[in-house]
Amino acid sequence: MCHLCNYRNGTIAPPGNIIIKNKYVTLTHIAPPEGFPGWILLYPARHVEKQTELTSEEKNKIVSIRWYCIEVLENLTKTDRVYEILFSEKTKHIHYHLIPRKNTVPDAFRGGRILEFRETYTEKEIAEFMTVFRERIISLAEFRDEQ
Questions:
Q1: Cα(68)–Cα(147) distance, rounded to whole angstroms?
Q2: Whole-angstrom Cα distance, residue 123 to residue 28?
């Protein structure tokens, strides 16, 4: 079973815990040592390897939640860019990386090179960021009835 499915079913606890988990999607934080606080993953609840396998409902929920996440990430991280990336090569479960590119990221690591950028941080820092992020996302009417 893939690690995203293990996050969803509770076999492995993702950093900062699960932010949103409903019948359509799961939203978690990327695991250290990759990324930095605010780098989140959005993926379908069921194991899906291709975007063309998503149902209409899953597509609609992913788009909706993605937009809310970008809005909250821009506000919390004080950035004007949130990158969205989908590869699904290493992990064969489609998952969208939502990456807030802070203004402090050097030019050499902007755009696609953001994947090479690293900051030192702890799981505690992720958990603290995700607590605030979770509160803001869940406060949106879109998700109140889906927890």
A1: 16
A2: 13
The domains found in the chain, sorted by start residue, are 3-144 (3.30.428.10)
Q: Please report the pLDDT score of residue 33 as a whole number.
A: 66
CA dihedral angle for residue 101, residue 107, residue 113, residue 115, rounded to 10 degrees: -40
Taking the C-alpha atoms of residue 128 and residue 76, their distance in angstroms, rounded to an integer, is 12
Looking at the predicted structure, is the pLDDT value of residue 143 above 70? no
The whole-model pTM stands at 0.86
Residue type, 109: F
Please check the confidence at residue 8 and state whether its pLDDT lies above 90. no
- The pLDDT value recorded for residue 145 is 45
What does the block give as tokens for 115?
A: 């994947």
Q: Residue 95's closest CA among 9, 3, 1?
A: 3
Distance of CA 12 to the CA centre of its chain: 16
